[in-house]
Amino acid sequence: MSFKAKRCGVQFSPPSIVLIYEHNETKHVRKRIIPVRNFSKYSDYRMAAERLKNHPRHRHYLEGVSQSQLEKLHIILRDHMQGFSLEHSLASFRLDPDEDLNKLDDDELARKKGQMDELFEKNRKRKDDPDFVYDLEMDFTKTAQENCSWDDESDDGF
Q1: C-alpha gyration radius of the chain
Q2: How far apart are CA 139 and CA 149, in angstroms?
Q3: How far is CA 76 from CA 15, 32, 52, 89, in A?
Q4: pLDDT at residue number 152
Q5: Residue 33, beta-bridge partner list
Q6: CA neighbours within 13 Å on the CB side: how many for 38?
């Protein structure tokens, strides 16, 4: 039997992964609710996602779902158990260029770095790409610098 995952989501009560999939032979679209057992607000989301993906009962249905997608769904479930809103959980997956990464804990920092790596690989130009240009030179316009008061008061000898 082969299945094609169409959509994936979470259900908070009871904690479950909701999978909408299509059976490749019959072309029927079905919904499968996969309960997330033995998962608390202190659980490791990576281990839980891996355990769910390798579970004999759900393995065939989750072949088309990436490990990172299952990890994100488990993070949303864990955040809900910790009392955070869905908006807060989803905002943690977005990259904010003004965010101070020094203030994040190790787990969140690793997640943000993983997102940056994915974005880099997606935007990366390779030699095989049709719009690849070797030795691309660009001119960046310089903005006028403002004079600071301390520049006027400094010694001429320095």
Answers
A1: 24
A2: 30
A3: 10, 19, 15, 6
A4: 61
A5: 18
A6: 5
